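Researcher: Here's a chain I'd like modeled. Treat it as a single chain, no partners, no ligands.
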Amino acid sequence: MRGDDLHTFPLESDMSLIPSTIEAYQVQHLPLVKAYADKIGLVEVINQLVPTEMAIDPGTIVLGMILDTLSGRSPLYRLEEFFAHQDTALLLGKAVTPEALNDDTAGRVLDRLYEIGTMKLFTACAVRADQVFGLDKRYVHFDTTSVSVYGESLPLQTQQDQQEQAVPLTITYG
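Model: Modeled as a single isolated chain. Structure tokens:
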């Protein structure tokens, strides 16, 4: 390469392109989780079903709680502390001060989620995921520690026979 092929710019314009501070965050897998949440419209579904007049919408708080949980379990009252070291614009879709994600705000959102019905919210999110990804619904398993289940499991051969005759599952909520 010849010297006259190089383009040089005055030092003053070079300095204006360099930010005064550079912030760096270890985001690990969290942008992937955010991308899936965006794909199914998680924040929008929550906001539609849980109307509030809060300064920060409940869908963003729920997304924040999900991201915090998937980064490694920490107490809910440390949500603010977790986001003090994160790029909120990247992970939540908008710049949010960590103080906006305090335990009082999270607690109010959890109260609203309970009032609306967590299974209703879960079902709405599951239906959106199915609409977006076309999930195979022939075989469904639902397990939770908060519900008692009585009875015995069917023998393996009977379960296989039932699976061959399975009909698609329809999820409804009201």
